[in-house]
Amino acid sequence: MHIVYLTNEYPTQQVAHGGIGTFVQNIARNLVQQQIKVSVIGISMTASKESFINDKGVQVYRIPQSKASLGKFIFNSFRIRKKIKEIHKQTPINIVEGSELSFAFLPKKTWYKKVIRMHGGHHFFAVTLNKKPALWRSFQERVSFKKADALIAVSNFVGETTQHLLQFKKPYTTIYNFIDVSHFNKKCDVEIQPNAILFIGTICEKKGVKQLIEAFLLVKNNIPNATLHLVGRDWKSEEIPSYTSYIKKRIPKMYLQDVTFYGTVSYEQIPTLIAQSEVCVYPSHMESFGLTVIEAMATKKAIVFSDIPPFKEIIRDQKDGLACDPFKPSDIAEKIIFILTEKKQAAAMAQNAFDAVHQKFNLENSLQENINFYNAIH
């Protein structure tokens, strides 16, 4: 079997990545170990020529984006189609997988099966964040779903919500994202920095960074030596050139020395950063799954998480961590303070989370679920 993943986020030193990139790298590397050939195709926003790397057996191709002023997404899709044909001539392709918009401008009839893995598309995030979907992106997403041969949802909530919003009748299979638990639990005994609060994710509005900063200021009133550590790529838009710079301006100068922005770090560094913290906080306004949450669980860490449906599928309130209202800094602060002061209860929740992640998100079972799915459709 030969599987191709379409993503611009596959992690390398030159590419800032998020949860999708991390997931694709995890599954791709492990599929290769099962003697399944895997290729990855992504558009590079900065490169002037095509590049190729072999990442532990995964063949990763980066194609320079089109320079067209209009219809760039269409021309980029044509370049992807061309690369798929080139790779297929070398080793026949059975499956091509991408996220919600991936197949809008690819052919409907193909020799390979097209799989959409619903990580949370345009409709999903627009509606759940109380925004109006953009017409052009909405059109692309609907066309892409019509062309897909099979669907995977990374949580029941994202599957049900997307199906309702797009009103498609195709069945979908829920397969939770997974991690290599051993990559994280080997760091469980790293020395903890007292009262260190950690956030991992894109530094942007929908991840609840603004509310987390406000909550941290409240925490400082009760725990003066608390520190906040934020790991993740900076979010940029036409209105806000740098969300990190924007959010730093909201921090009083007297507290700036207690807040550290790391930017993007390698996947190898993540377990140590989690292990060194005393509490991990994920106040997202909405998610499709929550890979960073299970990474913290696997590192036996106390967690404060948003009271949103996808997180409820992963972690139990009061048992594995503490749920908070992500729009109320006072509630986020209250839960952080509880974990930092009630050590015994925090340790018990961290142990419960550690046990749960081994049962529900272990690599062996989750990888086999994916392989069974691929075998069933190709």
TrEMBL record:
Native species: Lutibacter aestuarii
Cross-referenced PANTHER family: GLYCOSYLTRANSFERASE WBBK-RELATED
Annotated GO MF terms: glycosyltransferase activity
Keyword Acetylation attributed: no
Sequence ranges assigned to domain Glycosyl transferase family in this UniProt record: 193-353
Name of the molecule in the record: Glycosyltransferase family 4 protein
EC number from the UniProt entry: 2.4.-.-
Keywords for this protein: Glycosyltransferase, Transferase
